[in-house]
Specification:
alpha+beta; 215 residues; disordered N terminus
């Protein structure tokens, strides 16, 4: 999968941001041959791929979030277009998912808890890793007392979904801190670095769904 994705990148490097956005504009202004819902879906897909720019409400973050899947995020439409658009991004996310599965990052198996008193924990299997958390504008910061390391990540809440995005080094800090499969960390680091090597403006991320309290 990794080889096929990297090959895809090579085939899409000549796609200009302008041509990508022109095609998008054409889909919006002229819906011939497609339903309006499909065009709206394309816009939504693109928006979901971009880093969050709005101020994150700390109250909205509070609660328990269940891990769904990894994701790829871009700082602008231009970077997304240069990588081949949403379809190419989906292939990258599948590759990232395969990598993270090896260190226990699977859907429903990880919980992120953010308490009102600025404490929290990440639960992976039977391991709970405590941290302190804070928000500033569009960023969420997790500080792990045991290591003294702070991970700053872009946070974006859409409905009941939380997406955090960061560079590969910060994601590896989280994996190293919370994973029970330490023996796989080195190979995981190499795989992630290979996946996003030399791509400025592209970030790796994690998606979580808000858990509802049982009545």
């Amino acid at each position: 999968m990794m080889i096929s994705v990297l090959a895809l990148w090579g085939n899409t490097q000549n796609v200009s941001a302008q041509s990508f956005l022109e095609k998008l504009g054409g889909a919006i202004s002229s819906l011939s041959g497609s339903k309006s819902g499909n065009a709206v879906g394309k816009i939504t897909d693109i928006a979901s791929q971009l880093l969050g720019t709005g101020t994150v409400n700390a109250n909205s973050l509070q609660g328990t979030w269940s891990y769904e899947k990894p994701c790829i995020a871009f700082e602008s439409e231009n970077v997304l277009a240069s990588m081949g658009g949403v379809a190419a991004s989906a292939k990258l996310e599948n590759s990232l998912n395969n990598i993270l599965n090896k260190v226990g990052f699977t859907a429903g198996k990880i919980q992120l808890t953010l308490n009102a008193d600025s404490t929290g924990c990440i639960t992976v299997g039977g391991k709970n890793t405590a941290f302190k958390w804070s928000v500033k504008e569009s960023d969420l910061a997790l500080t792990f007392p045991l290591t003294g390391k702070t991970v700053l990540m872009n946070a974006k809440i859409t409905g009941g979904t939380l997406r955090v995005a960061m560079n590969a080094e910060k994601l590896l800090t989280i994996i190293t801190t919370v994973s029970e499969k330490a023996s796989s960390i080195n190979s995981t680091a190499s795989s992630i670095n290979a996946l996003i090597k030399n791509v400025k403006g592209m970030y790796v991320g994690l998606k979580f769904n808000k858990k509802t309290e049982s009545k």
